[in-house]
Amino acid sequence: GEFIYGIVRNAVYRVSLRSGEVRHLAGLVAEHGDADGSGANARFNNPAALWGDGRYLYVADTGAVRRIDLSTKEVTHFANVNSRGLWGDGKFLYVSTASRIDRINTSTRDVSTFVQGLGAPCSLWGDGTFLFVLDDDAPTSAIHKITLETGAVRRVAGFPSERVGPGGIWGNDGRIFLATGRTIRSVDATTGEMNVVAGDARLYGTEDGAAADARFVSPRSLWGDGRALYVADESIRRIEPAAGMRSFTIPNLGADSWVTNRAGPLAVSYARVQPAVGNSAPEGVAVFTLRQNGVLVSETAVPATALTQCGRTYAEINGAVNTGIAIANPNDRPAAISFYFTDANGQSFGAGDTTIAANAQIAAFMDQAPFNGSGQARTFTFSSSLPVGAIALRGLVNERSEFLMTTLPVAPLAAASTQSVVLPHFAAGGGWSTQILLVNPSDTDIGGNVQTLTPAGAEFGATSYRIAPRSSAVVDVSETGAEIRVGSVRIHPNVGDPAPIASTVFSSVNGGVTVTENGVAETESGHAFRLFVEASGRFGEPDSTRTGIAIANSGTEAAILNLDLRDLNGVPTGSSASITIPAAGQVSVFLHEIPGFSNLATPFEGVLRISTASAAGISMIGLRGRYNERGDFLIATMPSVNEDAPAVNDEKVFPHIANGDGYATQFILISRTTTSGQVRFVSQSGDPLTATIPAKP
Known about the structure:
Blueprint: E1 3-8, E2 11-16, E3 22-27, E4 37-38, E5 49-52, E6 56-61, E7 64-69, E8 74-79, E9 85-88, E10 92-97, E11 100-105, E12 111-115, E13 121-126, E14 130-135, E15 141-147, E16 153-159, E17 169-172, E18 175-180, E19 183-188, E20 194-199, E21 221-224, E22 229-232, E23 236-239, E24 245-250, E25 255-259, E26 267-275, E27 283-292, E28 295-303, E29 308-314, E30 321-328, E31 335-342, E32 348-356, E33 361-365, E34 379-397, E35 403-408, E36 421-428, E37 432-439, E38 446-453, E39 459-467, E40 472-478, E41 485-493, E42 501-510, E43 513-521, E44 528-536, E45 544-553, E46 559-567, E47 572-581, E48 586-590, E49 604-612, E50 618-627, E51 633-638, E52 641-642, E53 652-659, E54 663-670, E55 675-683, E56 692-694
Antiparallel strand pairs: 1-2, 2-3, 4-8, 5-6, 6-7, 7-8, 9-10, 10-11, 11-12, 13-14, 14-15, 15-16, 17-18, 18-19, 19-20, 21-22, 22-23, 23-56, 24-55, 25-54, 26-53, 26-55, 27-28, 27-54, 29-34, 30-33, 30-34, 31-32, 31-34, 34-35, 36-41, 37-40, 37-42, 38-39, 38-41, 42-43, 44-45, 44-49, 44-52, 45-48, ...
């Protein structure tokens, strides 16, 4: 559903699953009683459980079952039954009381006994066929499974050495989840096998974290939406599924987005994006954010990648700058990795081998083991015995000793194109500068010309390049003036030469400090693109965000763009626009600067579709602008979905995820058609990963 409902002492609250917004529904936390009324005028007496049907919310209160009209907040007495647990199937409410389960007809309000002879039944949950009961009758506390049609009772699992308390219970896909003591547990509904999902029964606290690193005070209520568990403790906590999995269903022109936690120690992992049978894999982006000393200092977007058995990337190991590589092996057997570096003259050195265990991942800077590269390196090349996922990250330690991240492409060494390459954005002047990184994908010298163009399509600058075999070159674009100049880049290889693997790194320096650094990888031209977009706060103020777009016209005639904005469910927002780009020109604007989008309500998350009938097509990238707590402007590029590209049914991989020690990761999935599947999170050692994350994305 869209909301979950929770109890805090004597009050009931509603929480939005999408925004995390908490709204009071009825009762008062510090006042108990037995009064009907609307909202805060009603009184409850230690309510214990909730169940809703979309119109009404039923409350198991002391001495009675109460009913809240969700449209009016009006609270009334529904049935005089003393209950510790409550669940309904639309026709009946099932309530736990004394040593039995009673059943209340929701139409007539008649109360009848359903099952007798239990110990001390408390929490209830059902799936339409069975009713599961948490029975807190020490020393024989147990979970019972009751057939709704016959009332037959079967014991599923027991707790021979403990009282489990009146915790919450919820189930999904053959598993029952329990909030008991200071832990969240999972029980197989058929075999009774039990595992701890999160928390430690011996330790008390409120810390978020992975599995046993999370702490609880006294979790009492538990709900789920098929993607995550929600636990009412001192606050509402969110737990990713115990198998390290998040299911997704993405409507056409829709998207999915969620954020992990930055609390606790640094944990490195990876994720597998697996479409359901007959579905295409969505495109995915993982946005890393890093906070140091309470300030957001860097963001970068890492795309979900197709698996490959070889790759090459730009490498730089030079004082404040270093390059890291992450390689994930999603196979059920070890992957043998061979690698080498190449210097500026095309000489290879530092060859080595390493093995990545089955389902495991490695991530290291290139001057660290097992790679042990040096400052001579200009590229890094690897090959693998099995298909793997790989991504490179450039790190810069700035003048404030803050770590700034930039994603670099890792290109497979397939037959390289000889066509010109388009980079849809550069920035120079006003403190901005751009480096154009060119990597030679071949074993021969290559050359050509780099041309920068203004938004009007006029030439801004041009320079030639020559790159040694397997090496790289850098072209700098800078301006000394105060005016910020933007535009696009064209890379034209010499006749017969393959085009280089191209990307940019653009930086902004303010007051002698590099405050942001990020980059753009080459994008293929297309006629329709989809981009995840967001807006929050008043842009320009601290903690505000806007998505921008940078689009280059690949053709020699003006291109008319049609822009259509949808919400995450693919529903039109009513905002649309048309933009014209001159021949060989470029446009770069933020969402609120697009005609027709200026009054977009915030916060907003959705999908922007951009299409053109121009024969040559366009090249585009998303730009996520964000002002941090200091008022620094940070920027991260956001890949878009090219509808012209063929659909892929095979799984993709997020080769690297970082959480904890100030790092958090936002996951974004977007598809060209309705699709479903799952994202599986895997630790570096290859084990399923479970993490608690805040309720608000």
